[in-house]
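pasting input
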Amino acid sequence: MNDPLIEDICAVVAAIPRGKVTTYGEIARLIGRPQNSRLVGRTMGRITDRPHIPCHRVVNSQGRLAPGWDEQRDLLLSEGVTLKANGNVDMKRCAWRPFDTEELQ
DNA sequence: AGACTGACGATCC
DNA sequence: GGGATCGCCAGTC
């Protein structure tokens, strides 16, 4: 059964353009739970059965990728996401903003 | 009911 | 800029 929380997260994550990434905190804020960023990450772990949801485009504020998910790094690289030497995502270039779509910047 | 943990965030060093 | 610590909320043991 899909919880309303999962539906909200999927809606936001699905809106992330290719080559861009967003943070759990940003999603949490968009779904109305600015302090539940951890719940978002935990919930996303349950969305693994949703291939249509690019959950690999979701990282934390540090640009750190999900632990135990080495495939995520390869997926991001395939989309043109720039990673730093330490393996973190370059949020400076790939941080997606709902208000700032492809038409802007 | 109580304690621990976590795909986190912000702050401090 | 990177690493360590504290704080928040919900889920799990």
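fyi The radius of gyration of chain A is 13 Å.
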